[in-house]
Design goal:
The protein is mostly helical. Helix content is 68%, strand content 0%. It is built from 3 helices and no strands. The model has no long low-confidence stretch (mean pLDDT 85).
Length: 99
C-alpha cells in the first residue's frame, strides 16, 4: 500500500533537505563575500568587541531561522489556498464573492 505525502509528513518520513548551491552561483559569490567581510571585521575587534559581535551573529541567526520558518508556513498556506481555489472552481475565496 502506498503512503500519502501527508501520512509521510505526519510520521516524520518526509523532510525538507538542505539545498546544495553550485560554485560560482550568485548565492556562492554572496556567501564568500560575506565570509571575507566577517573575517576582516573579526581581525579588527578586541576581546569584548568580539564577544558582542558573536552575540549579534547568534541573534541574527535565530531571527533568520524564525523568518525562514514563517515564510515557509506562509508560502505553504498560500499554496493550499490556491489549490483549494482550483479544485472548488471558485475564484472568490480571497475576494469574497462575485463583483
Amino acid at each position: 500500500m502506498e503512503t500519502s505525502y501527508l501520512e509521510a509528513f505526519a510520521n516524520g518520513n518526509l523532510q525538507i533537505q538542505d539545498r546544495i548551491y553550485r560554485r560560482s552561483s550568485a548565492y556562492d559569490k554572496a556567501l564568500k563575500e560575506a565570509c571575507r567581510a566577517e573575517d576582516a571585521l573579526r581581525e579588527t575587534l578586541n576581546g569584548a568587541e568580539k564577544e558582542l559581535f558573536e552575540k549579534m551573529i547568534s541573534a541574527e541567526a535565530r531571527l533568520h531561522s524564525l523568518s525562514e520558518t514563517d515564510r515557509f508556513i506562509h508560502g505553504y498556506r498560500l499554496g493550499v489556498r490556491m489549490t483549494m481555489e482550483v479544485f472548488t472552481g471558485r475564484d472568490d475565496l480571497m475576494f469574497g464573492g462575485e463583483a
